[in-house]
């Protein structure tokens, strides 16, 4: 997808999920021809030996699994979220484990992943389920700038991994403003679904031209977005969502969707922020 020299950064803490995230990050760095930084943020000077050991063990496994990657191990002192956010400004990807405590009070990756994904300057991948080397890239779509950013990232990942892409737009009746006491006739929901599917296909047409080798499946689901995305992504290698955007269909608020899938998806989740608008 890119040959940028900015690194892939993975936060580790000595736990098994963090090591799994590091191995996923190493494989991704190899595909991107990028260096990998294995980072431990130590908030307790008395745990320096543990921090150094955690960084070295994770980095060593990455070198064995992906020998072509330039792996740098670092131990820094500070607050884990603040440090990862600072690193994200000069990284092409930040990778975290979904759970795990390796002995540092603040390095509970399950709790920091949401904060980092919400505010990072680059895409953030939270590795759930150990990471899969097969399956499609699944992306949640609405009409927001965050969704456009997610689509760009998802198509790039699908092309890089030679994987298919599944674009999912979820919708619910409540999003159209109807209540049980409305006296107006209800729409034909099948027609609504067809129109949404057509709109989604039109939205993806430009991406097909840019990535003609990526086989794409378009799905519209009459369901809550978190339920729809986690269901479709059961066998995915990656689920991609945008963050902080409301599109043309109310209810597809990707800020809340990103939070939901980070806690419930069975595969790695990439959270991609919308580009910041100039003031």
Automatic annotation (TrEMBL):
<feature type="compositionally biased region" description="Basic and acidic residues">
    <location>
        <begin position="47"/>
        <end position="63"/>
    </location>
</feature>
<protein>
    <submittedName>
        <fullName>Nucleotide-binding universal stress protein, UspA family</fullName>
    </submittedName>
</protein>
<dbReference type="InterPro" id="IPR006015">
    <property type="entry name" value="Universal_stress_UspA"/>
</dbReference>
<feature type="domain" description="UspA">
    <location>
        <begin position="136"/>
        <end position="273"/>
    </location>
</feature>
<dbReference type="InterPro" id="IPR014729">
    <property type="entry name" value="Rossmann-like_a/b/a_fold"/>
</dbReference>
<feature type="domain" description="UspA">
    <location>
        <begin position="4"/>
        <end position="128"/>
    </location>
</feature>
<feature type="region of interest" description="Disordered">
    <location>
        <begin position="47"/>
        <end position="66"/>
    </location>
</feature>
<comment type="similarity">
    <text>Belongs to the universal stress protein A family.</text>
</comment>
<dbReference type="InterPro" id="IPR006016">
    <property type="entry name" value="UspA"/>
</dbReference>
<dbReference type="Pfam" id="PF00582">
    <property type="entry name" value="Usp"/>
</dbReference>
